## 1
Amino acid sequence: MYPEIDTPALVIDLDVVRANVTEMAKVATTNDVGLRPHIKTHKIPELARMQVEAGAVGITCAKLGEAEVMADAGIDDILLAYPIWGEPKLRRLAALRERARVRVSLDSPDVAAGLGRLGLRTGSPVEVLVEVDTGMHRLGRPPGRQTADLVAEIAAIPGVEVVGLLTLAGHAYRSRSWEELLEISRREGEDLVATAELCAREGVELREISVGSTPTARYAAEVPGVTEIRPGTYIFNDTTMMRLGVATEETTGARVLATVVGRPSPERVVLDAGTKCLTSDGLGSPGWISAVGLPYLHMEFLNEEHGVARLEPGHANYGELPVGSRVRLVPSHACPVLNLFDVAHVVEDGEVVTELRVAARGAVR
Ligand SMILES: Cc1ncc(COP(=O)(O)O)c(C=O)c1O
């Protein structure tokens, strides 16, 4: 399998990626919402451009560093879904705003005050989205009165313009049934729309309602009043999306190619991919890392350089997977895995066609 690539290596299946990009673009057009993919999943400008060419209205980044790389590549509409705090970052944001339309999400008047100073200094208000906590309990206040009060407070700060509300229903990742996932998705949209209506009654008109992780985007997009979805992981999917029922092995597009380097016992298979190539996210859940076409191979644990897997007890083919065999591993969480590789090897129609630089990897500031 791909003898021209030495392992461990990141392999991106372009056919799968194109299909995933097209499918989510269709979700957006069908529901008449904007698609603003989160590029922290791939960190690759060429893939961001593919998403925009397929109809995305712009991109979402978490970090200024990611946004700078994407602006260098000509992406000119960026949502920084992260509170930007401190003078060094505000200076970089000012420079970025000269090259792209940039919106920022936040959940505090303190962060808004810094942005307001920048807006006044440059004579152009910084557009912000106020983050709402729809159940993940990360950033944001609960929907309704508490958020409406925050919106009013931030809207009164000179130099910022509150254009909308944003949420990430990250608790959907923990949903235990399809019904629960659908309910979280619906609430993600409805809670924000109701909060925006409350803000409007109190004099602050909001035009953007931005929702949607990969598990929830397809369903939150259907809620009337939602204007934008921001899935990221959908471009590659991973075993978490498979567990949640929104992906299958066939729709996973980023795999770690690994070689068997040890068979110390009939059932144990040691691979040359550990935590330097894969993430321990999801460790302990069944199928947290899967091997394409090998449902009877179960990853047990990762050290830095070793992935230790086990063939199912009593499996007929203990002779399978001798040293030197190659396997394609589907990670439990695609985004941090991309952050571990300088380049991605791209395959199309089963052939290795090119390499892409993971240009925004390590952009933590
Ligand atoms: C603010 C924000 N929006 C969108 C996303 C994309 O979600 P997902 O990775 O489920 O596609 C993330 C992911 O962490 C996020 O933090």
Note: The mean pLDDT is 97.
## 2
Amino acid sequence: MGNEVAARLAARLAAETRGEVRFGAADRGRYATDASIYQVMPIGVFVPQSAEDVALALAICRDLGVPIVPRGGGTSQCGQTVGAGLVIDHSKHVRRILDLDVANRQVEVEPGMVLDHLNAALKAHGLWFPVDVSTSAQATLGGMAGNNSCGSRSIAYGNMVHNVLGAQAWTADGALLDFGPYHQASGRAREIGDFLRGLAEGLRPEIEAHWPKVLRRVAGYNLDIFHNQNQRPYTADGSVNLAHLLVGSEGTLALTRSLRLRLAELPRAKVLGVVNFPTFYQAMDAAQHIVKLGGDGTLSAVELVDRTMIELSLQNPAFAPTIRTALSPRINQGAPDAILLVEFSGASKAQLFPKLRQLVELMGELGLPGSVVEMSEDAPQKNLWEVRKAGLNIMMSLKGDGKPVSFIEDCAVPLEHLAEYTDALTQVFRRHGSKGTWYAHASVGTLHVRPILDMRQAGPQGGAAKMRAIAEEASALVRKYQGAYSGEHGDGLCRGEWIAWQFGPRITEALARIKRQLDPGQLLSPQRIVDPPPMDDTRLMRFSPSYRVIPLQPALDWSAWNVQNDPVTERTSAPGTGGDPAQGLAKAVEMCNNNGHCRKFDAGTMCPSYRVTRDEQHLTRGRANTLRLALSGQLGPEGLTSEAVREALDLCVGCKGCKRDCPTGVDMARMKLEYLHQDRQKHGHSLRDRLVAQLPDYARWASRLAPLLNLRNRVPALARLGERWLGISARRSLPAWQRRTFFNAAPASATREQLLAAERPVVLFVDTFNGHFEDENARAALRVLQAAGYTVHVAAKDQAGGSHLCCGRTYLAGGMVDQARAKAGELVEALRPFAERGIAIVGLEPSCLLTLRDEALALGLGEAAQTVAGQALLLEEFLAREAAAGRLEDLRARLAPATRPILLHGHCHQKAFGAVSPVLEVLRLIPDARPELIESSCCGMAGSFGYEASHYEVSMQMAELSLLPALRAAPDALVVADGTSCRHQIHDGAQREAVHVAQLLAQHLAG
Ligand SMILES: Cc1cc2nc3c(=O)[nH]c(=O)nc-3n(C[C@H](O)[C@H](O)[C@H](O)COP(=O)(O)OP(=O)(O)OC[C@H]3O[C@@H](n4cnc5c(N)ncnc54)[C@H](O)[C@@H]3O)c2cc1C
Ligand code: SF4
Ligand code: SF4
């Protein structure tokens, strides 16, 4: 497609629609991938404001002969959403509920609506849409229909095709058709139905012979709607619904305008039986018997967790207690080879208990008495489902170029063959020098498995060659066991060529005729399903053998990512040995496998900027893709310092939400620091950069001029000048300078010698912010610790040179890594003697103290930094630890009871390091205190981010997502927030004064 066509297309879209027109290299690059291994550059990206825009775009593309690739969340695993045409992203704006009919349990939605958002809206009516895909927080209904998606509970509810009642869609000629019951169809829709019926009737014997007879088959088009081959009828009364032709057609036949969906009653009760198996084979063999317990419709899931995942969970301190609750000591002494999570759902637990008993009896009959762990309470069940998800995440976080690759991960076989099939496929992996971890939907014979392959390696031992070889052997097994090769995730680029293999030449030709009938001009996702390219065409891959990284010397230490792995043992080589020309930075960026988990709005922090803008550019995935493209030279010679990277990272607040929530641990906050350093090296630092970065250095002098400097907050003209010269928003107040600081009027504390001689020693690290601007926090912390019986030495007292100690955080934020290293190095050296003696180092400001446990370890400060990190704790972590050890009873006795409700807002870095629950534990030391946590993402202030004029609006929008509404809903509550910028944001946004937990404790200290 020539540049001239692209330019005309962009111009017409801009002139004739209200949508966003994105034709820059970075935008195209961000939409060139999905959760598959492929990458194809689109001609451009269009983000429609409304359905009308989609229709206009379709007409323009038809005029210009440009193909269209429709897209929702882009979480497809087979390359369904990548293509050389115009990508239309429905997920940002085209996402309304059009009609909700509670009485008839139906809903009509636009295609960009996300499943979880729909279910949140339905909850109040006791309803849900039950195709519960694992990606429910990001998958759109349009994408789910496109792929004929299937959820964990498909055994009870069926796949997407079983739950779509109708669709309005545009065919390539621009006609908007109603696809619904065939017998009611008229006009063009009727013609299409008649055409299909003719095809299906002519191919009846072929369909019977070739169509897999399993629930999970998503390959090709659903030509069997006229002669159902699925285990479950597509419609309740056996009639034909033409919308089912579009389900699973992957955007190749029509553009969906709306979908009418069948809803289900929300299950009121669930019980779980966890069956432990001595061998994996026995687990697979038992599935066929277990599903027979579901004759009454109460069996809702049978999900597998294998030995590898159990072990990974046991190694994780957060999950070990939960997974232990699922293990039966009577099977392999509590070390089963696999477990099956067998869930029953219904109206009441009482109705379900007999089902659990039947399960126990069944396992006894199968020779496994004592193998079932019964879980009837909701909380342990929920925890266990979380562990299953997390196990997969850990698997996906393997470092090195070998990655678990999804290409045969959803073959479906009849249950009676599951054991033999999985066994045989395991042998196949072994022969090809790889291995797979098995998980997921045992109930329907669709087990997920991804062999580890290195797609960058060329030749017969390379990823592409092995992928083909394994696929061929796997397909032979699928044929032997009469299964479906494509059983859940669709065809896309990866399985398109296997459609002919699955259905034979006559049906394949019929599918091509359907395509020609609906889309004769090949306008909609051409070369998908019909006439697809080979799956191992490396020109279509994100990491092909020709992929190259531009050499770069990063400022931070990324060597932990610069490794290779062994596909069988999954062991990684020593840090720094991976051969990354960017010393590990590129490999860290490439950890993003595009699964889209960051496109979420539920609990957790990730990703606040995306939550506000809903823009792929401002999403962790979009950022990682931008960095990957830049580091591999695909955005031009400027690499990391290009404008595209600046734009993508501009709204990243460095909250570390992704560090915690991203399944593969993409740490964009750290990447942003690296970018800032590289960028400022090239473009220089602004005055504002310097003012922010060097704050710890001039704070001591500035506090002497406090009354003068604070005029800025009182004289609007000065604030406006500040905005003009420095870009600091005039709408913000700045932290007020104080003449008296913690450092120039320090309260009494222990000397170093007294500390070393003490029985209960603690070192208090007072940071710049709590020392200079809110010294009452530091004083309160000292008082609380002393009241609790600790001998406290303040490490941040004036040093010989007169300045206090500093973690270097502000320098990092200003892109000054060298200065940050000097500051952090000084702090580490000062703290090391205490850390070496095992003395806790306690800090107050999350972003400062946690710098010691995070960035300081990437600054090349050696062993000392590790030693200090090992002892560095936030005040609440320290107190919670001590309370658990029974050492705070005296303090507890001295605390006066709470008189007001308490709300807690966690700082993002506290969340990233699991330091929020310790705050709650510490608050509960106060008698009668029942603190509640606000489910919030980032407050939006994020250091200096929210003070910057260019970020003010976004910053306030982030606060309005959940934090400020929660505060307004509880006007009497006392607000606790440990982050200095969080407190400031709460002040600006809700006109409330939040306090540090140290303050609240001190206020409750009697006497
Ligand atoms: C970690 C992970 C777990 C997953 N788990 C599951 C699972 O449990 N079950 C499951 O079935 N899948 C699963 N998937 C695959 C994927 O998430 C689902 O297929 C999901 O439904 C896709 O939704 P989406 O919005 O991302 O669609 P996209 O990937 O954006 O699109 C899917 C298809 O729909 C088409 N499409 C989108 N919008 C339209 C429209 N308006 N008109 C016409 N066609 C359109 C696209 O062209 C594409 O062919 C998983 C994927 C990942 C990465
Ligand atoms: S950044 Fe993480 S969560 Fe987001 S798509 Fe990439 S791997 Fe998934
Ligand atoms: S650090 Fe925060 S804002 Fe930045 S990408 Fe990660 S989650 Fe998003």
Note: The chain has a mean pLDDT of 94.
